[in-house]
Please model this.
Amino acid sequence: MQTKLIIHPDEMSKQWVDVAKKNNIDVIGIHSVGNVNAHINLKNDLDLFQTKQYKSAVDYANLSGIKVEYEIHAVSYLLPRELFLTHPEYFRADENGVRMQNLNFCASNAEALEIIANNAVTLAEKLYGSTNNYFFWTDDIKNSYCKCEKCKNFSPSDQNLILMNAIIKKMREKDKNAKIAFLAYYDTVNLPKKVTPEKGVFLEYAPYERDLYAPASAVGEKEVELIKKLIEFFGKENSCVLEYWYDNSYFSGYKKPPKKLVVNNSIIKEDVQFYLNLGFENVSSFACFLGQDYRELYGEPDFSALKK
Model:
């Protein structure tokens, strides 16, 4: 089992690496803030990734035996929104067939897919110190997938997988070992019906809509069966669950100053075993709003439940 904690870019520091090392965390994930401004946030973060201080922290992580990966709602960055002025057909259509400049893309447009895939290759090169596991998620808003005449026959999960397939095929032209996550989250949590994954696509399951104050096993038989089918469909290799046990941005209402994080170690340990029993190879959790400002207010957060 590999464990990962996911933080915001401005929280990355040598102090954070020390906390991760102390708790035997294998990977630190870097997550640009999502929502409708995800593409703007990512653009700003790309400048941060080139700073001496940030690179030094990533280098320190690698020297400490901790890998660094990037988990990003990237589509609105990979398909620049200004292209809407000349190529509205690249963009999603709403229920009335009207093309929309904001959020996601048209999964039936080959040129749009090509642009996104090419830009994904370029983006990967800008992610300082990253492994060859990539997490270029679709946009972080419900009901934002294309409903044009062609796309309406494909579910959000199918459209998501169409995109991940296009990206990984392009990326593997340069790196045969590149891998990309299919994020099962919000509208894409259901099984794709008409599209199958290319080699290198792996499952990342993020149960954001479950009761985050209850054990994961309380989701019920229907959800457990869905998880099993997702693992069977994508395969166990590299499969990971993305949880919210330590997501203090969520528990703080996405507003600072951060609240004090209260964790239930017994439930987290139970959840980890629950996911491993289902077949996941790796576990991860958001751990945002736990940076230097949090430590100054409350001290070091408790990640002991993930110690192997």
Notes: The chain has one domain: 2-306. The first helix runs from residue 14 to 22.
